[in-house]
Amino acid sequence: METLVRLSFYCFAAATIAFVASAACYLAYAVGRVRLRRTALATDAGPALVTHEASFQPASSGIGRFATLLAWFGVGFQAVSILLRTIAAGRLPLSNMYEFSTTFVLIAGVIYLLFERWYGVRQLGAIILPIIVAMCAYIWLLPADLREVNALIPALQNQPLMTTHVSLAILAYAAFAVAFAAAVLFLIANRWRVAWLPSPDLLDDLGYRAVTIGFPAMSLVLILGSVWAYRAWGTYWQWDPKETAALFTWLIYGVYLHTRSLRGWRGSRSAVILLVAFAAVVFTYFGNYVFGGLHAYGGV
Amino acid sequence: MAEFENTVPAPAPAASRRGSGERGGETRQINSPILGLLVAAVIIVTALAIGAQSGWESIGTGGINQSLLPKVGDVAPDFQTEDVFGNPVRLSQFRGQPVWLMFWGSWCPPCRAEFPDIQAAYSQLEPQGLRMLGVSLRESPLDAAAYAGANGATFLVLSDPDERDTGSAYPIFNFPTHIFIDRDGIIRSIVLEDMDTEQAVAEAASVLAASVSRPAIEAESAG
Amino acid sequence: MTHISLDQPIAKPRALPEVVVDRIWRFFCSVRAAVVEIAVLAVLVLIGTLRGSSVPRSIADAFPIMTPLVDGWYAWDVFRSLPFAGILTLLAAAIAVCTINRAPGIWQAIAHPSVTTTHGFLRNAETSATFTSAIPAAELAAQLESALRSGRYRTLTAERNGEIHLYGDRWRFSRLATFPFHLALIMILAGGIVGAAWGFRENQFYIPEGSVRELGHGTGLAVRLDDFSEVYREDGTALAYRSDVTLIKGGEPIESGSMTVNNPLTFGDIVFYQSGFGQAVALKVADSAGQVLFDDALPLGPFQSKLNPDAPAARMDLLPAGVAMSVIAPDENPANAPELDTLHLRPGEMFFMIRPLGADSPIAEPLGATVGQGESIQLGDLSLTFVRERRFSVLQVARNPGIPLFVAASVLLVGGLAITFYFPHRRVRGIVSATPGGSVARLAPMARRDWSAKRVFEQLAADAGRRIGIEPTLQTNEPDRSPAASNQLSRASR
Hints:
The complex is a heterotrimer.
Chain A: H1 2-31, E1 33-43, E2 46-57, H2 61-89, H3 97-119, H4 125-141, H5 159-192, H6 200-232, H7 241-259, H8 268-286
Antiparallel strand pairs in A: 1-2
Chain B: E1 2-10, H1 14-17, H2 27-30, H3 33-54, E2 80-83, E3 88-90, E4 99-104, H4 109-125, E5 131-137, H5 141-150, E6 156-160, E7 177-181, E8 187-191, H6 197-222
Parallel strand pairs in B: 4-5, 5-6
Antiparallel strand pairs in B: 2-3, 2-6, 4-7, 7-8
Helix pairs in contact in B: 4-6
Chain C: H1 16-29, H2 31-51, H3 55-62, H4 67-75, H5 82-111, H6 119-124, E1 127-133, H7 137-150, E2 154-160, E3 163-170, H8 178-198, E4 200-208, E5 212-214, E6 221-232, E7 238-249, E8 252-259, E9 265-267, E10 270-286, E11 292-300, E12 313-318, E13 323-328, E14 349-356, E15 367-372, E16 376-379, E17 382-399, H9 403-422, E18 426-435, E19 438-445, H10 451-468, E20 473-476, E21 492-493
Antiparallel strand pairs in C: 1-19, 1-20, 2-3, 3-18, 4-17, 5-6, 6-7, 7-8, 9-10, 10-11, 10-17, 12-13, 13-14, 14-15, 16-17, 18-19
Helix pairs in contact in C: 1-5, 2-5, 3-4, 5-8, 7-10, 8-9
């Protein structure tokens, strides 16, 4: 068991390396090739005027494919890491911010790569992979004793509910991260019309599809959270800050879904709401640091 | 008047990078499984190298994998400490008798709440040959003696205020901890909660009974 | 089934009340209003969430001028406030009105969609497919219909001006799924009201080990705590908190059971939860005649003594004796500097104190003394015995008749969402016209700025083409979007 925990950590390290490399490649791919043209206008008295002109061109698809390959490697290593830790702990690693975040990294990677396949666009990776890398960095900065498998406190000892409630939360957050990336790219593509970015309509649709995964998942998180609260604490809704933060997130995505049927809102304004909504997701995710209340456990 | 132009390729055009390795951007190369394996190998070697630098060898030994108390079925590790009067007492000197080893403190509310029940259980078990050692931790021998005396303890009260004598073999993180050791020094049961009389008598039964089956096991292993 | 007349009603002047009602009705129906309402609700939820965090405190620390505002923030219990209840009521009303308002139209679109379309619609559609054939128009239309049907589309046709108009759709009932979803939201609110009105909950039901406590709330039940255990792992982390209880009705034990934190004990519709625990003291009080006034245990902790606010303490009124009694246990928390306590209590000791209670109290001033476990003391007329220390458990007890509503609502909510999102209503319109050489059919999806729907349509057109053996010509329009003007972003610098 000890070896499995250690091996799991090595796999996470490998996944981090792969994700960092992948993020770099995705960024190179999305930005395209930058050509700096230096033009010097020379006179008899020497150079008088030097202009630099940067021109962007689409990157070769090779670097994009390589980015995807690295992302799959990252996901693969992370999957092995989670698998080993699951075997070592006898449960999925979901019980504290360390374990939760390692699983998030995996699910976010998988969801992104699936969307990449479905829509055949790679530029989204330039936003989502840096988010994954940031999460990896966060995991690395957490106290080292969280790398150990710790026993569950009584309130968390409910395997079916912990697995479903927490993993659905991860699924929802990962889908929302993809929606966020789509919204960012939409705003860029809509504003500057960079030709090699996907069409704004595609990005708008992609963001919406991601929300159609995240929103039902988030609904289930709230419902299963209520069920669990009812079993463990005796009340299905406590107005606990983590609960209400999740409700807040859910409501903002509710606003987003309604605005899509409003004339003149679909597109840019919806995308802005997605940005706000993702801020709510981040707030809910890291809220444990500022919340008191019943979710304040798990070594954060 | 002269005009010149220099172009800084960042990165260079694809044509000039053709065949220059993994950054080459050619479908044929990216899809080749050899390249994939190579990349995976580079990643793994890097991870191993970082790990060797950062001392990850100890990861996995903490948390639930921590080895603290001896396990049921192990020989109870010996220790020597003092009773409340300062006389040395060894665990091994009770070999041959079933032993109920309790770690407690008068500062610990669950220990005090169970105290009358524990004493009642011991009063029942003592005539059957059980010896009970109550090791008081994290308090002065005086406090332990005062509480035990005032509440009619008849078991042997030991004191190891700084856990210097027992701490390495019995690192105690929760109070009370009850360990039942049979005549041969084998741990038969470890109870990590406060007990009532009935439960204590039931737990002790395992060490009182164990001696009966013991010769049979020895005969088996001898044969 | 409701039918809506497609003819516009003749406009006639209306009375003011009618106009007001109409305005209100329209307000509730408007998606824009719904968006605003949800946003306001979200803001209130955010305010309430931050109230449960350290964020307002940090704001006050950073900007001291904000302190009064932050204090008000912490003082305002948003979730039990009138504005919060108001916005929930408003949303519930909006959902109800919207449902009533939209249902006929949606049903119309499902049951009796308009089949005819215009050439303009097809021409301007963001994507469309043209099938050219040598066969007569009626035959082409029939083939397209059967191709659509094999793609599990429902098809309807109508003839107008010698052309055949074609309508096909799939998963039309998905449009109704928004109703169960929104109904579920109302049901959740209703469940909360039902639970509050007809249920009960006891948040802090203290029972010391060995004691019996009446539950009340008309249940006729009493609960005896047989044993409370804190079970730990060897590293000192908690494994379980467990209460073993016996339920008593009319003096007879009727059921025994245990509960741990994730496994409540259910008796009929009443549920018992493990919630907390602590230190208790068993004591006995007798008067001078030897009559026992009290023989039970008291939980130490819920009450704070003025003599030593840090120490676990209990208080009880002994009305027949005309005194109030308090018990103080030694303070064991090193953080509270117990060595400074004036009572100098040692483990195994309690400080008992009685105070006068009522006008005819037998004592004139407080009397107190330290008692060891198992000892008795005389205070005034009373003989007080510190029997022993015990544990107490805190249970939560609840009966919530709203639960079935929540369960039903949850199913409707998730089911409604899943159908809405994963089985969207797909619609195709088309016109088949006769040409000199045969016929031509042009199909287009109802998919304005809907990338997925366009892809689905293109796939459908390709499949249909394969089935009838005609390669369709796809045409796309980008009506509200000029093509990307330049690939170059230029920047000059010196």
